[in-house]
Design goal:
GO terms for molecular function: oxidoreductase activity. Keywords: Oxidoreductase. Belongs to the short-chain dehydrogenases/reductases (SDR) family. With about 70 residues, this protein is of the alpha+beta class. It has one domain. The model has no long low-confidence stretch (mean pLDDT about 80).
Length: about 70
């Protein structure tokens, strides 16, 4: 059994996009489709060695964004 969590807190809300996009290293917010792709990966056998983690889908902000 694999267990994972996904943090998609930097995905699309128009006002927030305008206010905080400059704080994200990729300079944009993610699309819901990008989060869905990560979810599909974590649910697939391709992620068989990924377990117990929280996977950030935040354009690099958690890795040292401003």
């Amino acid at each position: 059994m694999r267990v994972a969590a996904l943090d998609d807190s930097k995905v699309t809300v128009e006002v927030a996009k305008q206010s905080f996009a400059d704080r994200i290293p990729l300079q944009r917010y993610g699309d819901p489709e990008e989060v869905a792709k990560m979810m599909l990966f974590l649910a697939s056998d391709d992620s068989s060695f990924c377990t117990g983690g929280v996977y950030m889908v935040d354009g690099g902000r958690s890795a040292g964004g401003r």
